From TrEMBL, chain A:
This is Translation initiation factor eIF2B subunit epsilon. Residues 444-459 have a biased composition (Acidic residues). InterPro entries: ARM-type_fold, eIF-2B_epsilon_N, eIF2B_epsilon, LbH_EIF2B3/5, NTP_transferase_dom, Nucleotide-diphossugar_trans, Trimer_LpxA-like_sf, W2_domain. GO terms for cellular component: cytosol; eukaryotic translation initiation factor 2B complex. It is found in: Cytoplasm, Cytosol.
TrEMBL record, chain B:
GO terms for molecular function: guanyl-nucleotide exchange factor activity; translation initiation factor activity. InterPro entries: eIF2B_beta_subunit (IPR051855), IF-2B-related (IPR000649), IF_2B-like_C (IPR042529), NagB/RpiA_transferase-like (IPR037171). One of its GO terms (biological process) is animal organ development. It is found in: Cytoplasm, Cytosol. Its main location: cytoplasm. This is Translation initiation factor eIF2B subunit beta. Component of the translation initiation factor 2B (eIF2B) complex which is a heterodecamer of two sets of five different subunits: alpha, beta, gamma, delta and epsilon. Subunits alpha, beta and delta comprise a regulatory subcomplex and subunits epsilon and gamma comprise a catalytic subcomplex. Within the complex, the hexameric regulatory complex resides at the center, with the two heterodimeric catalytic subcomplexes bound on opposite sides. One of its GO terms (cellular component) is cytosol. Belongs to the eIF-2B alpha/beta/delta subunits family. It holds the Pfam family IF-2B. Keywords: Cytoplasm, Initiation factor, Protein biosynthesis.
């Protein structure tokens, strides 16, 4: 019996027959996970045209299996796999895998829909279907990790117990200093955190930023331990409470996790939600977000950094996948034959029934199943998938060769070449660095853009027919070659250029999203367009707005209550703290006569203008100045204003006097402020002002006399 | 259907055992001694014998072999599991032979002539059905379990024969067997123990704390000081992860250094190893775990390979004596014990 509502036509839900997890006692809610088996980007194009990213083999095992293994080993008992692009293939794969066996400790449900366009859509669906009941893990289908998150989970639960519903998410980070090879350049982040509570105060992607801005309010968070870190790698694993899904529903503009995190941090004061982090020093966690990361993660897996998830562990439990591990990290599955004089130098994984010819040199390479490799072949950092034929005298350096590719005699592949499915190359051709060849014509790309790339498989078949009519260029793929080149290094068409480099994750100007980010953070005044607009500018704009409000109040004779209302709403709009509101209000009022009459007015004129205003707006002040501390703040900002205008010091006394008479300020406050040790010469000078001294004396006398009366 | 229910229950147990084995390897699960693993494996095999569907000894052996292969694949470095599977297979062979009326000894004496003529076809002989076979096999497995329960006691009982008063003993890392062995001797004799800390996991520290609680005079030394201290040592007593078929060891990293130092100073090296650690394996594959401290190194030098071996291979020449639950044996005698414990056809599961 499924307890999930399924809207007909929108999604298909699959529940394995045995749900033994239901039998657990109520107090121990089972740990659930949401696995997003779609990247919602096209980084791996054109490879992902034929196979979804989650199913691409990494060290001969599909990436989604690594993620599921990670989840299962951390004790997840129920996983919801959300697929969109080529969902049927993922479903088919999972059905055959060990995860859908009745004995699996992790019950996997597959939920598919063509309507998912982003992580946001998926989480909104999670909320709509009420899939999660308690804290859950959120991961992508291409995360490879062996991190033990039990501690993070416990911390998360503790925080939740302490403050109900305040902490909504714990993100897992791995410590890895800049330059570490698992660091993905697109994913560089800067985080400001509270050292004690591990709360994230500020989160920014640092990609290609020259300057960084931190909002001031994060330093006022009341913590004495404060860290700004650049040595963290986002493992893309997060522990979320069910509210996360709700928040995505409430804020329909959240598309990515990035949106969500930044949105929450900016609106922290309003929503009252916090995000925490957990930093792990050991353990391995990385997301295969581009081919460079694919290269890194593959080689790390073979070098056993992800232990116990190693090639010979055969954790996916597939028939015939077991392999032996020998010195220098050489792994061989069953039925591998190696020709005379061939050497497997180090970090090599060879799939079952692969035949390798004589005198080959193979290092740092993964070869899939049923491949045939000729004589005198040199492979270095090559990732060769299944059923690939490589003829004699071929050289391959740091390249990806997909299923069923044929590389003919004498071909040389330079760094970062990609041969997508079914391509034929050669003979005797040297492919320059960064060549991407695919059976799909790049022009299809544009057609597809129109009818949205998330189409189903029929379309792909149809397009294949169409491409056959186009001619292969022998200069690109060799005289017997088949395939289209996706990029030439010096090309005017910048879009393609970006695309191809994107696949290796080198470019930074690729996605428009990050562009806008860097612009804004570089101090543009395009306010409000982005949630992360710098705080300082907000203050300025707020000041202008307050000034405008007061001006209007004066012109249209608006009542003080309404003015307070307007200022309060401005406060929320610009996210200004109460203290700042008061400071700004004082400043605006004190500078009001200058704005009206020009900056050159005399002190007498100034005070004659100001005093009626003070009287008029006294209720406004009273609304904000309530506690003794408020009075001090108020006086401090008055002092600040007057310090800037030395010529008008005489007016200060009058202002103080009238504020005292209007009962905005009390004598204790003024005395306290006056006796406060002043820091600068100038403010000491201000205090020695003749008029002020008299006023203070008068105050003291008044106090004494009032005491005497009593 | 109670039958089907029984079977799913069984397979569920097998799965949970497998996943636990896997987690043990990662260090995330509960850290267990190999004695416990051996007991659990045997108990699981008894359950399989009792609950699985089989008509004759051949079927049963096939089932056990199949599950045994999966169990050993789950945690290749833990040889105990495979050893227990072999022991159970041997039990089935013996019980079958007894039921048939012939003696297992007849099979044991394999001459070269017999080997050539019989070939590998002895499997066919296991097709006969015996009603009481199941009960007999379970009975024999129970005996094996009782034997396993007593191993540590049996080994530590021999302690007084080997440890004399005022001796200086060296050991490395933490072995439960050695711990029990030393503590047993400490009841009657006074002696001094040097514990090599066994970096980077430093199990030696735990060992030293545990020993000093029993009022044994204990000193922790860094691994680098092993050679320097060796001249003062009377005996080296170590545990091991596996005893290999040639009499060599696969033991915790650093043991090879210790054994070489002992050889140089002609200090006797005694290995405390229960019989269930005896494995028909000969080859040693380096088993690597992750070494966290080296992570930063690779970040700078991407061409550098960092290896973090967990086990050392110690060749048999360096070992003086094995103390097992059935007594002391020289390394050269291991092959004989091997043929007594396992059937030659079961060496490869």
């Amino acid at each position: 019996v499924t307890r999930l509502r399924v809207k007909p036509g929108e999604s298909i839900l699959e529940t394995s027959k045995r749900t033994n997890s239901r039998q657990l006692p109520e107090e121990q809610p089972l740990l659930q996970a949401v696995l997003v088996a779609d990247s919602f980007n096209r980084r791996f194009f054109p490879i992902t045209k034929d196979q979804p990213r989650a199913l691409l083999p990494l060290a001969n095992v599909s990436m989604i299996d690594y993620t599921l293994e990670f989840l299962t080993s951390t004790g997840v008992q129920e996983t919801f796999v959300f697929c969109c692009w080529m969902a049927s293939k993922i479903k088919e794969h999972l059905r055959k895998s060990k995860w859908c066996r009745p004995t699996s400790p992790n019950v996997v449900h597959v939920i598919t829909s063509d309507l998912y366009r982003s992580l946001g859509d998926v989480l909104r669906d999670v909320d709509a279907k009420a899939l999660v009941r308690s804290d859950f893990l959120l991961v992508y289908g291409d995360v490879v990790s062996n991190i033990d998150i039990s501690q993070a989970l416990q911390e998360h639960k503790q925080r939740r117990n302490m403050d109900k519903n305040v902490s909504v998410m714990t993100m897992i980070f791995k410590e890895s200093p800049p330059g570490h090879k698992t660091r993905c350049e697109d994913d560089d982040i800067i985080i400001a955190m509270d050292g004690k509570s591990k709360r994230i105060l500020h989160y920014q992607r640092a990609q290609a930023l020259k300057r960084l801005h931190f909002p001031m309010n994060i330093f006022h968070s009341g913590s004495d331990e404060f860290e700004i870190r650049f040595d963290l790698l986002d493992c893309h694993i997060s522990i979320c409470s069910p509210q996360v899904a709700e928040l995505f529903t409430d804020n329909f503009d959240y598309q990515t996790k990035n949106d969500f995190v930044r949105g929450l941090l900016v609106n922290e004061e309003i929503l009252g939600n916090q995000i925490h982090m957990h930093v792990t020093k050991d353990g391995y966690g990385a997301r295969v977000s581009n081919l460079l990361m694919y290269d890194t993660v593959s080689s790390d897996t073979i070098r056993r950094w992800v232990y116990p998830i190693t090639p010979e562990a055969n954790f996916a439990d597939q028939e015939g996948q077991s392999c032996t591990h020998s010195r220098h990290n050489v792994y061989r599955e069953t039925g591998v034959s190696l020709g005379h004089g061939s050497q497997m130098e180090e970090n090599v994984l060879i799939g079952r029934n692969t035949m390798i010819g004589a005198n080959c040199t193979i290092s740092n390479t993964v070869i899939g199943a049923n491949c045939v490799i000729g004589d005198n072949v040199t492979l270095d950092r090559a990732y060769i998938w299944n059923r690939v034929h490589i003829a004699d005298d071929v050289k391959v350096k740091q390249s990806v060769i997909c299923d069923n590719v044929e590389v003919k005699h004498g071909v040389v592949l330079n760094e970062q070449c990609v041969l997508a499915y079914n391509v034929v190359v050669g003979p005797d051709i040297t492919l320059p660095e960064g060549t991407v060849l695919s059976m799909h014509h790049p022009d299809e790309e544009d057609d597809e853009d129109d009818d949205e790339f998330l189409s189903d498989d029929n379309d792909v078949g149809y397009r294949k027919d169409k491409t056959k009519q186009k001619v292969f260029n022998p200069a690109e793929v060799g005289s017997e070659g088949k395939g289209y080149r996706w990029k030439t290094s010096s090309l005017e068409d910048t879009e393609e250029d970006e695309l191809a480099e994107c696949i290796w994750g080198l470019v930074l100007n690729a996605d428009p999203e990050s562009d806008s980010e860097s612009e804004v953070s570089e101090g543009s005044h395009d306010l409000g367009s982005h949630p992360a607009s710098p705080e300082l500018d907000d203050v300025k704009v707020f000041q202008n707005e307050v000034h405008g409000t007061l001006q209007r109040g004066l012109d249209e004779n608006i009542s003080c209550d309404n003015l307070v209302l307007e200022i309060n709403s401005l406060k929320y709009a610009y996210n200004i703290s109460l203290k700042e509101v008061m400071q700004i209000l004082i400043r605006v009022v004190l500078e009001f006569p200058f704005h009206q009459q020009g900056a050159q007015i005399s002190t007498a004129q100034y005070s004659s203008h100001l005093l009626p205003l003070l009287k008029k707006w006294a209720p406004v002040f009273k609304n904000y100045v309530k506690r003794p501390q408020d009075q001090l703040d108020c006086l401090a900002s008055m002092e600040e204003v007057f310090l800037e205008r030395e010529t008008h010091w005489a007016a200060l006394v009058k202002v103080l006097m009238s504020m005292y008479q209007l009962e905005i300020l009390e004598e204790e406050g003024i005395m306290h402020w006056f006796n406060q040790g002043s820091t600068t010469d100038k403010s000491q000078q201000l205090r020695r002002n003749q008029g002020l001294l008299k006023f203070i004396q008068w105050l003291q006398e008044a106090e004494e006399s009032s005491e005497g009366d009593e | 259907m109670p039958g089907a229910d029984k079977e799913t229950d069984l397979s569920e147990r097998i799965e949970s055992f497998l996943s636990e084995l896997k987690r043990c390897g990662s260090g995330a699960g509960s850290l267990r001694g190999s004695a416990e693993t051996a007991r659990e494996t045997t108990a699981l095999l008894r359950r399989i014998t009792a609950q699985a569907r089989w008509g004759n000894a051949g079927d049963l052996m096939e089932i056990i072999r199949k599950e045994g292969r999966r169990m050993t694949a789950a945690q290749p470095s833990e040889t105990t599991v495979g050893n227990m599977v072999r022991r159970v297979l041997k039990i089935i062979r013996e019980e079958y032979a007894r039921s048939r009326g012939s003696t297992e000894e007849a099979d044991q004496q394999e001459s070269l002539h017999k080997l050539l003529t019989s070939g590998g076809s002895s499997e066919d002989n296991f097709r006969q059905h015996f009603a009481h076979l199941k009960a007999n096999v379970i009975e024999a497995i129970n005996e094996l379990l009782t034997e396993l329960e007593g191993t540590t006691d049996n080994i530590s009982m021999q302690a007084l024969e080997h440890i004399h008063s005022n001796e200086v003993i060296m050991t490395i890392g933490r072995s439960r067997t050695v711990e029990a062995f030393l503590k047993d001797a400490a009841r009657k004799r006074k002696f001094h123990v040097m514990v090599a800390e066994c970096a980077p996991f430093c199990q030696g520290h735990e060992m030293a704390t545990s020993l000093s609680k029993e009022d044994i005079e204990t000193t922790v030394i860094p691994d680098a000081a092993i050679f320097a201290v060796m001249s003062r040592v009377n005996k080296v007593i170590i545990g091991t992860q596996t005893v290999l078929a040639n009499g060599g060891l696969r033991a915790v990293n650093g043991t090879h250094t210790l054994a070489l130092a002992a050889k140089h100073h002609s200090t006797p090296l005694i290995v405390c190893a229960p019989m269930f650690k005896l494995s028909p394996q000969v080859s040693d594959t380096p088993v690597q775990s992750h070494l966290h401290d080296l992570v930063k190194l690779t970040s700078i030098l991407s061409k550098v390979n960092a290896h973090g071996p967990v086990f050392d291979y110690v060749p048999p020449e360096l070992i003086t004596l094995f103390i097992s639950n059935i007594g002391g044996n020289a390394p050269s005698y291991i092959y004989r014990l091997m043929s007594e414990l396992y059937h030659p056809e079961d060496h490869e599961l």
